Amino acid sequence: MSEVLVLVDHVGGSVRKTTHEMLTIARRIGEPSAVFIGQLSDDAAGALRQYGAAKIYVVDPNALGPYLVAPKAEVLAQLVGSVTPAAVLVSSSAEGKEVAARVAVRTDSGIITDAVDVQPEGGTPGGAPVTTQSVFAGSYTVQATVTRGTPIIAVKPNAATPERAEGAGTVENVPVSISSSAKGARMTGVEPKKASGRPELTEAAIVVAGGRGTGGNFEPVEALADSLGAAVGASRAAVDSGWYPHSFQIGQTGKVVSPQLYVATGISGAIQHRAGMQTSKTIVAVNKDEEAPIFELADFGVVGDLHTVLPAATEEIEKRKG
Amino acid sequence: MNIVVCVKYVPDATGDRRFKPDNTVDRAAVDGLLSELDEYAVEQALQIKEKQGDDTEVTVLTVGPERAVEAIRKSLQMGADRGVHVLDDAIAGSDALATSLVLAQALAKVRSAGGWDLVLCGMGSTDGAMGVIPAMLSERLDVPGATFGSSIEVDGDTVRIRRDGDTATVTAEAVLPLVASVTDMTGEARYPSFKGIMAAKKKTVETWSLADIGVEPSQVGLSSSWTAVESTEARPPRTAGEVVSDEGGSGAKALVDFLTSKKFI
Hints:
heterodimer; A: alpha/beta; Rossmann fold; 9-stranded mixed beta sheet; 17 strands; B: alpha/beta; 7-stranded parallel beta sheet; 14 strands; transport (chain A); flavoprotein (chain A); electron transport (chain A)
């Protein structure tokens, strides 16, 4: 079976769940090969083997230099040239999509982003990948295929349930030669963000989000989130008001989330917000305004002030958890 | 300096967006407008022009059907200087890779006519939302790409951006010419003033066909794209569930009862 290249999504060398999901998807289409850009630790190699990586291509990050994504794309495109894989999977993050876009141009291959599912054609293992995407604010489901070149697919978090399968994980170091044209945009500073200790927004099973109705006080939102083990999100109104960082914004211009449970508090539910959460499995809303459009899509709603409802709910949850 | 802003005319997200039987977006069923995310790019181009002085020219470039010229008009009303509209029936149904080919060829033509130093894009469109065009243009034009700037600054021939990622904030710089994209964090876009609306009427919009930019019809369009949409299906709309009023703590209890019944607790 042909190789399927999976560009490993990791933070500081630690492999993210999205990578396990992509390796699981890769096994449907061919034989998964992980492409790891970074210093490969034993833990990381172990994680990749556990989810079926037959090969691990390692790229020395120092050889890529202090540049934005172009060198990564160049290395991946070179690998596509030498391996001729059945497909390339990357994580559908801003950086992943940019790498994918560049690889697509370099290898003259079709690209699909934001895949929420990838299956082999006709359900036959080893078949060409058929992707599912959720478009127009989640109001349509679209199936697509790549018709020219190597399918380059950017996969969203939670697109598959990670399944373990032992892989040989043979390590191969990739020789790197970066052209001068990939060195045009140089990073001059990197300031890591403090981890919140909460689940990552796009990966979380539960998201509790706050909007204008918080009045700038996110404490009740965060407390409820923590009692549920949830990630915290914010509406654009809350972010524009400077109440919560932009990286937590949910909606058309922020993150698109699709958790098992979405709790919208103090959020009216404008179309721009709905675009970011409409495909959530269960939606719960708390809002003072009974006319708020968010209630039209909520499976359960409470008309009330989040500043009293949320703390009481948090207390009740803690009590029931014992 | 010369700046070209790439903009897209998109179906209004508040309208009933849908697909045609051939699985392409129905661009006639819903009114269109300049993609909101491109307004930020136009705004940043105008701010750069204001700082650089009057010899800086802002050209707005779009690829799209006849009515896409409205996206150019809006940009001209905001303050851009001139427009280029690539209009050709053969482009209909093009995917991102094909669209980037058309844009890159149009930009090559602009380059040979007076040139550009900076190509500015929004972070993505509000319809397709792939966000890949700026990176593709960087590749096709063989110039650096500085994407997803939450701020952008031009200092001589150096462009600096700040990128607010999920795990880190990155600052980066590149030397002109280059392609950059900016996010909605760069700051609100201006509304066209009455004066701007009047002035826009006198500004020129050139219309180019594929032949004008050296692209064969067989290189683009629905049948020549690199990807194919196999099927599109409307999701059943969500329906409203039970809504209770909070009275003396009853709301919180009902909420937790619901979460418990769904096994979230």
